[in-house]
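User: Round two. Same drill as before: sequence, then structure, for each protein.

Assistant: Same drill it is. First protein:
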Amino acid sequence: MAASGVKDVEDEVFVLVTGANSGLGYSICCRLVDEFLTSRQNDTRSLTVVFTTRSTRKGNDTLQCLQSHLRTSAREPSAAARVTFVPENVDLCNLLSVRALSRRLNKNFAKLDAIVLNAGIGGWTGLNWPVAIWGVLTDLVHSVSWPTYKIAPAGLVTDNQTTSLADKEPRLGTIFCANVFGHYMLAHNVMPLLHRSGSPNGPGRVIWVSSLEATAKQLDINDLQGLRTLGPYESSKALTDVLSLTSNLPSTTPWVKSFYSTDSDTSDANPTTTSSPPNTYVSHPGICGTGILPLSPPLFYAMLVAFWLARLLGSPWHTMSTYMGACAPVWLALSTQSVLDAAETPYQRQGGGRAKWGSSTTISGVNKPASTELEGWGYGGIIGPAVVDEDRYRRRKRGMVDLTREKKEQFEDLGRECWRRMEELRKQWDELLDMEEASAGVKE
């Protein structure tokens, strides 16, 4: 729908989901539809799901699957008519492709209520099998929740982003660009659309999809792109945690405000809509079976059996299916702002802040979002023991200790430095891409 369309966008919800051709991204799209239709059975509001894949063929295949799911999920044709799917292509490791998608979105849509930044790559080449087998046999729950046996190479970089300025380009880590920086650039570029969100859910939302296993210890501020680490995926997910959880702190305000900023000409293109700064949240899918880790079919199903056993042994995070893993990001995307504020109020009331929301499950398979304890941030940034009963009684990662004031200050300092460096990197690349497009004759 074009930004100048006649439909009242106040009655429409627009959600962008990246990486939707399979796995978690596809399930997020399906669950968006199911929960939207279930929670809004008696109103006329509509949902538009804009999803990205890396090619037109994958986009068309995904579109057919989503339309089939909609026909099955909707109880009557009038309900199905309230949902629209829009496929888009983007390569997050190609910043010019990210720019092209951003322009199409800004041109063709009146607003975005939420963007779910899900796409990414693991970069693993295999497993350390002796360590993996020993861990599963002797310490199952911990081993399949916070694995230390995945093997990944260091130093992977993207192809050149430009042709005329290739000799001036800084290195850009492949995993960093796919999981963080491509999304970061995309989110900034569509800020005009996020600023126009308001009704029915509240301010626009930037929703990062992280990982249960990410911790701030895996992030080296002097290796922000994870080029020197053998855990570039974990480093990238730790960076998304730090950026999200510190996004509303006074110490990060100058750089967050710059990230949220919009071009004045673009942001005023639709003066009839409201403008309010978006909110940034972070989620994770728990532990579910996806194709991000290269495994043969027998090993994949063996992995699912291990996940099921871990759930039986009391793990709250083994959602197993990607549909259940989609619980937390969909909750963050579709809930009204009052619901999200109420969920974080217990933490903020005790001097905390944002929480990391994960998809959790009970032994019987009851699925719901849950706050996740994070090293350096605890539960929602609360110093000392957990203050929410569900957090207090949830199984913890072995070795976790209550958050101290010193550790929290270190986390906030890390967040401030991450935001500063990310904004500097964004502006550096924006200048390079501007020059590249000028030399190629690309017009806004």
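Second protein:
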Amino acid sequence: MTASAAGKPGLMPVAEALARITSGLTVLAAENVAVGDAVGRVLAAPVAARRNQPSADMSAMDGYAIRFADAPELPVSLKVIGESAAGNPFSGAIATGEAVRIFTGALVPDGADTVVIQENTTREGDVVTLVSHTAQGRNIRKAGFDFRTDAQLLPAARRLNARDIMLAAAGDHATLSVARRPRVGIIQTGDELVYPGQGTGSLADVVVSNVYGLAALARSVGAEVVDLGLVRDGMEETRAAIRQAEDMGIDVLVSSGGASVGEHDLMAPALKAEGVDLAVHKIALRPGKPLMFGTGRRMRALGLPGNPVSAYVCAVLFLLPILRRMQGEEVPLMPTRPAVLGAAMAANDMRMDFIRARLDFSDGLPRATPLPTQDSSMLSALALADCLLIRPSFAPAAEAGAPCEIIPFNG
């Protein structure tokens, strides 16, 4: 095990842990999904347009399609010879002195090069009079105005949002090639744990919460999540849960609890007994020092602390990069943003701190103010936080207004 930057054996720097945890990751196989079901998925291949958009010259307004040469001076009267509506184009061509009634989204008739909006005309019967000047070519969206056939619309490795889905559909794609969803299995260990609403009434009961937060985080980056249940404190029970995850084809097994070194902390020995090679265990990190990570025959295992805040922070730092990289998404391992301190901070020790903080966007860079309670069991404080405020190992004391780095919780 690598010594920390502080020289203390057994504590691995966060950056080294991140590098080890994400090394050797391969992108999951691609699959085709319906374009309407692809939001939140990561493209496995670029998306190119299969047609021009628009496919032909189309009217941008309701009005009249004319030959600009017929309107050198105003007013001028033209004969209306037909109508062009979206989906029902005019079948002929416009000759000298003629006009076609046209509607937004309709094909511009042959011979026309300008659309005059209806507010700039008057009409009696089949005669329209142009009363206000319109520049040549006005109010026409030319073929390929938005994009042309074979133009790249979306790059590979892009996580698709609603706007991307609209663009791909407009490019005539009924299906898209995306990375398979990672399968995440979650187990939480401890004899004291009960599911919400299923307690025994004993004061020793601890209502499980980690599994729900971890599942929500994993789903937020496109993963498929399987709750593998609560695992009692026993070596055989723990090993059986690990084997179950492998048998189910889980890509990443996430455990919460049992990651430390007490008599009831069985996750590390159970993982080793099931052939998982632990490359990371004990990080110079606060909260989350006991975190562990290893690779097995068919899956990766991320062992998180049992304290709820520690589990959540470690999942943000380590689980999300794993899942994003497995889908081919090209993102920083630690997506930080600049901010300034909202309060003075004392000097830090050897462990890199990830402090729950509120953000104030009143002016300039966001201002990050630590919450008064930083205990790793306090979910009420975590729910109030907007970000993680990063304090590097051995950071000197800093005054309010000093620059800092944050990881926002909402993008």
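Confidence is low (pLDDT under 50) at residues 1-8.

User: Perfect.
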